[in-house]
């Protein structure tokens, strides 16, 4: 019986004895055992997180409406505050998280942060099961979740370039995006249905999945970051990440493009409002709405894993951001669930194209000794765009109503795409993913066995 397909799928089965002394070069990241484990761990962790986060948002909105007697606009503002309380620890701890990922063994950092997030899921499950939830308690758990995720992001992002050859990194990023996006598809939908069946069940399942992620990361080879150069003081080393990004316009433009586009144009924070009071589809519909963008994103990521993008990457990234804004406007004016789901799926596809290009460019234009800190800066931008975007959406909804807030945000995203193409012509002129020659030579050197 030929076990090769199963061996490639599972990764942890022992390989047969080599038939030749010449070292074979893998053609896909999935042929690398450590990447297989990394992919599965990322999928499990994101599946847990997305299922948990969608229920936290719904519970905040529902508790505000049902237990505190708030109006739709007032409860929408609570969703904005939810984003703010998650962003505060991210803003404060991002330099520390990046320094930790560049200073300590990266698997260990990721496992410890997932363990903290697992404790948050346990606490939320217990409080939900015993009907103890209040807005202050939900905000506290959301802040603790933010603390855990700020350390997970840089460590996990810095692992991938260390376990695949540099020439396979764009494919690895696309495959990693498939893990993230497919889990983002399943997580909200599963969380919504589990919550409808038994309120604490999404948190119990999140606990089990985070434990699985920790176990999957354990067999991966140790990822010891290169020795830091520059100033020896930890605080100065943390600041070096911000300084490096600020001094490289290409990285600065790529990172801030995502920051401002999603900060102003995100509609995710308003989905509980649309599900409960505009489309009238409840938690099951909310799960579908949250999953729809990830469906489109997963399809695009799968396409890029098979046929990586090669030409005019900068222009395509900017066009995708503009499309993201236009689709956001269409979602805001839709009153049909099928149409809303279709628009959100297309929105997710456009966002994935932008994220794929930006992530590849950022990783391939950063030296390994700086990847943790630069990934932390990039993660801060993503978190700011998401969490502060929720605050902006909440404030806009309080002034303009939820529909007006979403439409305004879509128009703002289109403006950002045009402005960044003028402010950062380096992005518009980016033709391929090819990194600077000195970084590629350094990466190849680090891949050689000691």
What structural category do the secondary elements indicate? mainly alpha
- Gyration radius over CA: 21 Å
CATH class: Mainly Alpha
CATH architecture: Up-down Bundle
Poorly predicted ranges: 5-17, 440-450
Strand content: under 5%
Fraction of residues in helix: over 70%
Number of strands: 0
Q: Largest beta sheet, briefly?
A: none
CATH H level: which superfamily? MFS general substrate transporter like domains
Distance between the termini: 37 Å
Q: What is the residue-averaged pLDDT? A: 79
Q: What's the number of domains?
A: 1
CATH topology: Growth Hormone, Chain: A
How many helix segments? 16
- Principal-axis shape equals globular
Structure characterization notes:
With 450 residues, the chain is an all-alpha fold. The chain has a single domain (30-221, 234-444), classed as Growth Hormone, Chain: A, CATH 1.20.1250. The protein is built from 16 helices and no strands. It has helices at residues 4-10, 33-66, 72-103, 106-129, 135-163, 169-197, 201-217, 234-247, 249-265, 271-278, 282-306, 313-333, 337-364, 371-423, 425-429, 437-447. Helix 11 (282-306) crosses helix 13. Residues 5-17 and 440-450 have low confidence and may be disordered.
């Amino acid at each position: 019986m030929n076990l090769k397909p199963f061996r490639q799928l599972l990764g942890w089965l022992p390989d047969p004895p080599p038939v030749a002394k010449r070292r074979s070069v893998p053609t896909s990241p999935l042929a690398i055992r450590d990447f297989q484990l990394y992919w599965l761990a990322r999928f499990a962790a994101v599946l847990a997180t997305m299922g948990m986060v969608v229920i936290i948002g719904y519970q905040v909105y529902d508790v505000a409406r049902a237990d505190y007697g708030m109006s739709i606009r007032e409860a929408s503002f609570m969703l904005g505050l939810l984003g703010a309380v998650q962003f505060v620890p991210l803003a404060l701890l991002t330099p520390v998280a990046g320094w930790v990922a560049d200073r300590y063994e990266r698997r260990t950092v990721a496992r410890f942060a997932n363990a903290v997030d697992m404790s948050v899921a346990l606490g939320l499950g217990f409080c939900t099961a015993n009907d103890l939830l209040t807005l202050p308690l939900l905000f506290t758990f959301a802040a603790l979740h933010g603390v855990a995720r700020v350390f997970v992001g840089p460590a996990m992002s810095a692992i991938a370039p260390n376990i695949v050859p540099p020439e396979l990194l764009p494919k690895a990023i696309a495959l990693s995006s498939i893990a993230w996006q497919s889990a983002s598809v399943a997580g909200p939908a599963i969380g919504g249905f589990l919550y409808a069946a038994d309120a604490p069940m999404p948190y119990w399942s999140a606990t089990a999945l985070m434990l699985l992620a920790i176990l999957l990361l354990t067999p991966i080879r140790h990822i010891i970051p290169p020795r830091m150069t520059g100033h020896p003081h930890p605080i100065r080393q943390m600041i070096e990440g911000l300084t490096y990004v600020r001094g490289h316009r290409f990285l600065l433009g790529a990172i801030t493009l995502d920051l401002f586009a999603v900060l102003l144009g995100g509609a995710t924070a308003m989905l509980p409002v649309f599900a409960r009071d505009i489309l009238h589809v409840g938690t099951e519909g909310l799960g579908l709405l949250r999953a729809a963008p990830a469906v489109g994103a997963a399809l695009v990521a799968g396409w890029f894993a098979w046929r990586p993008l090669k030409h005019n990457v900068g222009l395509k990234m900017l066009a995708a951001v503009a499309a993201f804004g236009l689709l956001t406007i269409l979602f805001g004016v839709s009153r049909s669930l099928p149409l809303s789901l279709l628009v959100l799926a297309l929105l997710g596809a456009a966002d994935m194209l932008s994220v794929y290009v930006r992530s590849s460019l950022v990783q391939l234009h950063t030296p390994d000794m700086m990847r943790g800190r630069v990934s932390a800066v990039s993660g801060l931008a993503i978190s700011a765009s998401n969490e502060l975007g929720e605050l902006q959406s909440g404030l806009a909804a309080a002034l303009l109503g939820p529909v007006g807030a979403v439409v305004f945000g879509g128009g703002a995203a289109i403006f950002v795409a045009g402005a960044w193409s003028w402010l950062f012509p380096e992005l518009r002129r980016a033709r391929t993913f090819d990194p600077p020659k000195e970084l590629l030579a350094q990466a190849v050197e680090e891949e050689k066995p000691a």
